[in-house]
Write a structure and sequence with these properties.
By secondary structure, the protein is of the alpha+beta class. The protein is built from 24 helices and 14 strands. The strands form 5 sheets. A 4-stranded antiparallel sheet has the order 3-6-2-7. The chain is elongated, with a radius of gyration of 32 Å.
């Protein structure tokens, strides 16, 4: 008995044992899955965008240091747009005043900035006066409103930051210091903000109020994931089961597959809970991916059971034969796929670690259940398939004959088509604008699109350090800060507004010196500048101090640049140019470190793509070693690598032609696609090599198409339909993952059913020609 036959016999014995003890196997599998799934009860959403960045990420570490110094810059922004397009009215001042007061009731709020509570300064008899710009909205007379307009239009810390430059909108910004270890905290804050908006709109229904800010971003990440888990993922399950039934024409086979999928998913999500995983929209893709792998395992078994029963074999014998023939391919597919998903731990983004680990656990469960639970449950269910009609030429049989008779032409067309796709890869550009992560149907995306032309969408924080405590009031340093701020203001294509300490110092110097124009400048003496800063801070009310602008040691200050909704490339260019300006114009005076969410998202894609390629390197070696050992052939191992890598590369090429832009979501595509590509390759090659022991290449190809071709085709139709449904997700990362994976599945099928057998036929012919002695 050959090694292949011994492995098939082992699989048949496991199936026979499972069917003999079917009730114990079925009940034991369900109980074990339910017990493991208890861990899922501890799963909670990580309502913070920071969860997407690894603890060793240098940009994230810089951001953490800045937050420890200046506080977190998370916020809820109430964007107010009056019906007449003019905020300088008594009615709108009442809206702003109401929102300002109500915002102090937000959970974890630490600061509220608005037009009405802006700390306006002026000089009075040699004294500095600091007061709310409009303490009482009842005082908003036409004359007072005209004064407020004049002040706002000439105040750098208001114009373009709190009020739009055209005066058609204003923002009430509430800074929150939410705890990082509290689940669903962003949704809690967002719910409170929505309640405040609803209450104000009830009083002033003619105004438009949109919710923006980083806290709303984090909440939308959570809400988008929940929406997919509650509607889209069940829809994927439904469409896959419907298509499966349409292809297999058996309620029992579909029901058995459904149970297998559910058990594997319960194990995967339970494992996630036991290991302390935090849910994100990315890790919530795990059930869908586990579903795909479990479906692939089930379809390979069921397709062969269907074939054997249609040929007249008794049900029990057909199940044993199917498990025996698929035992080795399912094992190899599962091992290589588990390794593929574990490579996601190379990613810089923790949610991808969670996705990989949850999915790996689910795939392992699907593997075990497909060779134990599946034969047991099938033996309990009625399985009836119509006998094959005489003279019927199944699709796979016709494809096999095409490949056997015209291998050169088929291989040529496939190589040229795939090469054209792969050649397009260099045209891909990387772009990670978080505002583009969400569909226009979401309120937050609409709010961001409304705010962008008025105020921009995000911020870059430049931490400027003169190198010694107390030096923040050094005139040379303040002059450098002022020069840097003025340079940023010239970057009109990227920068919407700049907030700098130097603007405050110039205004205070101006006010203390009787508002004389010649004193609207940086104080010339360090001690004088320190006194001015001290007097100004003493005059500020609680919650509106300068702790978010100057550190406690008076050594660093933060310059904030609000940016338009610019691309990742434009963001990197702005950061590079800003750091170059400091190196050229302020060397020896100060250093700069760039932080903020915009900075983080500008680098996350590159880091994840780099990690994906690093993980892919290990995966390629692992797949080669596993398959070369399993098939006992280095040549087959090389062919397997070729068949696995080519569809994934072609997928990125097709994406370049269809979309042209990738983000950090692509880090998961390789691992997801590899699991399915390996499945097709292993099943086809294992069947081919089994038959090749006793027959020539043409007959071996026919046998592979007969025993694996239909399952590969059915799996492709089922999974491509399911993943394509993800395109409708309101969360772009999931939509991209769905579309790219659907493309990869189809290309993988074409490679394994057209290119691989063509190459096998051509290799066989070449070998035969060499064996014929020359006359």
């Amino acid at each position: 008995m050959s090694q292949t036959q011994r492995i098939e016999a082992l699989g048949a014995r496991i199936a026979s044992w499972s069917m003999k003890w079917r009730w114990a196997v079925v009940i034991g599998s369900i109980l074990a899955s339910v017990l493991i799934s208890y861990g899922a009860s501890t799963l909670r959403f990580a309502g913070d965008y920071r969860v997407f960045f690894g603890a060793e990420n240098p940009e994230f570490l810089a951001s953490q240091r800045a937050e420890q110094t200046f506080g977190r810059s998370d916020s809820v922004g109430f964007l107010v747009i009056p019906p007449a397009g003019d905020i300088y009215t008594a009615n709108t001042m009442e809206v702003v005043h109401a929102l300002t007061n109500a915002s102090w009731r937000l959970p974890f709020v630490s600061r509220v900035d608005s037009l009405t509570n802006f700390q306006h300064t002026y000089g009075l008899e040699g004294e500095l006066v600091v007061e709310d710009l409009l303490f009482d909205p009842s005082e908003a007379t036409p004359e007072r409103l005209a004064d407020i307009r004049a002040i706002a239009e000439n105040e750098p810390l208001l114009d373009g930051f709190v009020v739009s430059r055209g005066g058609e909108a204003t923002i009430v910004n509430a800074v929150v210091q939410a705890p990082t270890d509290r689940p669903n905290v962003s949704s809690e804050i967002a719910a409170a903000a929505r309640d405040i908006r609803a209450g104000v709109l009830e009083q002033f229904p003619d105004h438009q109020i949109e919710l923006i800010g980083v806290s709303m971003l984090s909440a939308t990440f959570e809400e988008a994931g929940l929406a997919d888990s509650q509607t889209l993922i069940p829809a994927v399950y439904l469409i896959i089961l419907v298509v499966m039934f349409a292809m297999l024409r058996s309620f029992s086979a579909t029901f058995a597959s459904l149970l297998l999928i559910l058990l594997a998913t319960l194990v995967g999500m339970g494992f996630g809970g036991w290991t302390g995983v935090a849910l994100t929209p990315i890790s919530l893709s795990a059930p869908t991916i586990i579903l795909t792998i479990a479906v692939a395992d089930a379809v390979h078994v069921l397709a062969l059971v269907r074939q054997k029963i249609r040929e007249g074999m008794e049900k029990r014998a057909a199940i044993e034969a199917s498990i025996g023939l698929n035992f080795s391919p399912i094992a190899l597919t599962s091992v290589t796929t588990i390794v593929g998903f574990l490579t996601l731990n190379f990613s810089d983004s923790p949610p991808f670690h969670h996705l990989g680990n949850i999915t790996a656990a689910g795939i392992f469960a699907a593997w075990v259940f497909s060779i134990t639970f599946l034969p047991a449950i099938l033996s309990l269910l009625p399985l009836k398939f119509k006998p094959a009609a005489e003279g019927e030429a199944p699709l796979m049989e016709r494809v096999a004959e095409l490949v056997i008779n015209r291998p050169r032409e088929v291989a040529g067309v496939m190589v040229l088509s795939l090469a054209a796709m792969v050649a397009a890869i260099p045209t891909l550009t990387v772009n990670d604008q978080w505002s583009q992560y969400f569909d226009e149907s979401l309120d937050f995306r609409g709010a961001v699109d409304t705010a962008n032309p008025l105020f921009g969408t995000d911020q870059l924080n430049f931490i400027l350090d003169p190198g010694e405590p107390g030096a923040v009031t050094e005139p040379e340093f303040l002059a450098a800060v002022d020069g840097f701020a003025e340079w940023l203001r010239t970057q009109n294509d990227s920068v919407a507004h700049v907030y700098a300490l130097s603007d405050i110092m110039k205004r205070v110097n101006f006010n203390i010196n009787a508002d004389r124009p010649e004193f609207f400048a940086i104080p010339e003496d360090r001690s004088l500048a320190g006194q001015y800063l001290f007097v100004y801070e003493l005059s500020l009310p609680f919650g509106l101090d300068l702790n978010d602008r100057v550190d406690i040691n008076r050594q660093t200050t933060r310059v904030t640049a609000s940016t338009w909704d610019i691309s990742t490339e434009a963001t990197r260019d702005l950061i590079a140019d800003a750091e170059a300006w400091v190196a050229t114009n302020a060397a020896g005076v100060m250093t700069v470190e760039t932080t903020g969410s915009k900075r983080l998202f500008a680098t996350v894609a590159d880091r994840n793509i780099e990690a994906m390629f690093a993980g892919a390197g290990y995966l390629v070696v692992a797949i080669f070693v596993i398959l070369a050992l399993a098939f006992r052939s280095v040549g087959v191992g090389v062919l397997s690598l070729f068949a696995n890598a080519l569809p994934i590369l072609a997928t990125f090429g097709a994406w370049a032609l269809l979309v042209g832009v990738v983000g950090f979501s692509v880090a998961a595509v390789g691992a997801v696609a590899v699991g399915l590509v390996v499945d097709f390759t292993v099943h086809f090659l294992s069947k081919y090599l089994r038959a090749r022991e006793d027959a020539g290449a043409p007959e071996a190809v026919r046998y592979a198409f007969e025993t694996a071709g239909s399952a590969i085709f059915v799996t492709t139709v089922i999974l491509a339909a399911g993943f394509a449904l993800l395109i409708t997700s309101a969360f772009k990362l999931n939509a991209d993952l769905g579309l790219m994976t659907a493309i990869a599945i189809v290309l993988s099928m074409l490679v394994n059913l057209l290119l691989v057998p063509s190459l096998l036929i051509l290799r066989d012919r070449q070998t035969a020609n060499r064996a014929v002695p020359a006359e």
